Amino acid sequence: MSARRSTAKRAKQERAAKRARRKRATTELASGRGARKRSWIGRVAKWLGIAGLVGVAAGGALIARDERQRRAYTPDEVRQRLHERAAQAGQTD
After folding, report:
1. Is 9 helix (H, G, I), strand (E, B) or coil?
2. Across the chain, what does the average pLDDT equal?
C-alpha cells in the first residue's frame, strides 16, 4: 500500500515541479524589467482600447470630410440653397 502512495506522491510532486518550470519559463521569456504574463482580461482590455482609438480616429476623419464639403460652398451658393429649401418648405405647408 505504501508503494502506491509514494508513487502517487512522487507523481504529484513532478506535476508541481513541471508547473513551476513552465511558469518560470514564461516569465523569463517576457521582455522588459518586471514583465509578467498578461491575463486574458488584460488582453481583451488592450484590444478594446485599440478598437476605441481606431473608432475615434475614423469618426474624426468623417467629421473632417463633412466639414470640408460644407466649407466648399461659396456664400452665394449657401444663400441660394437656403432660399430653395425655404421655398420647398413653404410649398409643403
Report:
1. helix
2. 82
Of the CA atoms within 13 Å of residue 89, those in its CB half-sphere come to 6
Question: What amino acid is encoded at 32 in this protein?
Answer: G
Grid coordinates belonging to 30: 517576457
Give the sign of the dihedral formed by CA 57, CA 58, CA 60, CA 65. Answer: positive
pTM of the complete model: 0.38
Q: Are 27 and 37 in contact (CB under 8 A)?
A: yes
With beta carbons less than 8 A apart as the criterion, state whether 71 and 60 touch.
no
Q: Which three three-digit cell numbers place residue 14?
A: 513532478
In 3D space, the residue among 40, 38, 16, 37 whose CA is nearest the CA of residue 27 turns out to be 37
- Burial of 83 by CB count in 10 Å (0-12 exposed, 13-18 middle, 19+ buried)? exposed
Q: Which residue has the cell 463633412?
A: 66
Q: Which letter does DSSP use for residue 39 in this model?
A: P
Q: Has residue 13 got a pLDDT over 60?
A: yes
